[in-house]
Write a structure and sequence with these properties.
This protein is α/β, with parallel strands linked by helices. About 40% of the residues lie in helices and about 15% in strands. The chain has 2 domains: about 190 residues, Glycogen Phosphorylase B (Rossmann fold, 3-Layer(aba) Sandwich); about 160 residues, Glycogen Phosphorylase B (Rossmann fold, 3-Layer(aba) Sandwich), CATH 3.40.50.2000. The radius of gyration is 22 Å and the shape is elongated.
């Protein structure tokens, strides 16, 4: 079996969830196929830092480019010309496209697989620019593919319903997660216990609802700070809202690498995930892996991921969110039980399982 992953995500993403997924997939698959096949990443020029340190077990056909203004545009333009030439020389059995494109990456003799991560663009168009063409390009890519992998059952149901894709053309393969590290950077002990939020905050991520829930509960404000990790500094509108709610001294934005994030998970009183929609949702698993109790939305794929190992709430209701936080934080027994259930839950998700299930799909597509 000859498998090739195309250049798309690796020429546009230095770090990130999708490129991490394909890096782990390629690395694991190379070990599975061994001498009975080959695994390559066809990206003549790339910016991705995972690939720059890739093991020799799979072939990265390309050159890592240093950061400069316009480097991503250069990589995409160059790869559009060079990648098809290299792809024809490789003569792969399977081409797994790493993102959505209106043009095929695979030669006519190859089978094409694509992964759909979520249907956020279709369900929350107001969160994106009118110039964003993701919906149209995704539809073309899905129609062209021989098989579609979805990262959750909920995403598959949305895909089938919204794009009228035959269910037999789809499979579900859950992601693994990669944050767990034995190295945790020393971070100063917090002055006050805190609630932890991780990631981007705009639109469907529903961070403003969390701010309102936090601010409306005097007991929460008296006993806990709220830390938003990652996602960049607070915007002007976020700062105005935080000031309007009277919680300027209690709401903070922090940043850093995986080691710093791991420390925040380990020290947090609870991890809060108020998102209105996720195609999968890795942060709750990361929190669980560090023994942090999880309080999260009861929508989209999130219940599929967390199972019974989290306290869930209605993300459209400020009261439901606030009550869930108070209920957990006022009960040491509830916190301990969520820690226990979370540590057991994360064992069900691994990159090795993701690799095995994807390899089985490739075999079915070729049969």
């Amino acid at each position: 079996m000859k498998v090739v992953y195309d250049h798309q995500i690796f020429s546009s993403q230095c770090y990130g969830g999708i490129s991490r997924y394909f890096f782990e997939l390629a690395k694991g698959l190379a070990e599975v196929v061994g001498d009975d096949g080959s695994v390559n990443v066809n990206s003549p020029f790339f910016v991705n830092n995972y690939l720059s340190g890739a093991p020799s077990s799979f072939g990265v056909l390309g050159k890592h480019m240093p950061a400069f203004r316009g480097v991503e545009r250069f990589c995409r333009a160059s790869n559009t010309v060079l990648s098809p030439l290299l792809m024809r020389a490789l003569r792969p059995d399977i081409v797994h496209e790493t993102y959505y494109s209106s043009r095929p990456s695979a030669p006519r003799s190859s089978r094409t697989v694509i992964t759909v991560y979520d249907m956020i663009h279709e369900l929350f168009p107001q969160s994106f620019s009118e110039k964003d063409k993701t919906c149209a390009v995704k539809r073309q890519a899905v129609q062209r593919a021989d098989h579609v992998i979805c990262i959750s059952e909920h995403t598959r149901q949305d895909l089938v319903r919204l794009l009228n894709v035959p269910v037999e053309k789809t499979s579900v393969v859950h992601l693994g997660f990669s944050l767990t590290t034995s190295v945790i950077e020393d971070v100063q002990e917090p002055v006050r216990p805190y609630l932890l939020y991780v990631g981007m905050r705009d639109g469907y991520k529903n961070f403003e609802k969390l701010l309102r829930a936090y601010a409306c509960q005097p007991w929460l404000k008296e006993n806990f700070d709220l830390i938003a990790f990652g996602g960049g500094r607070f915007s002007a509108s976020e700062c105005a809202m935080i000031e309007r709610l009277g919680v300027v001294a209690k709401v903070h934005q922090h940043g850093g690498g995986d080691q710093v994030l791991a420390s925040h998970y380990r020290q947090a009183a609870v991890f809060v995930y108020p998102s209105l929609y996720e195609g999968f949702g890795i942060p709750p698993l990361e929190a669980m892996s560090y023994g942090c109790p999880v309080v999260c939305s009861n929508t989209s794929s999130i219940p599929e991921v967390v199972g019974t190992a989290a306290r869930m709430f209605d993300p459209d209701s400020t009261e439901s969110l606030a009550n869930a936080l108070v209920e957990v934080l006022q009960s040491p027994e509830a916190c301990q039980e969520l820690r226990r259930l979370g540590l057991a839950r994360v064992n069900e998700f691994s990159w090795s399982r993701c690799v095995r299930e994807t390899h089985a799909i490739y075999q079915r597509v070729l049969s």
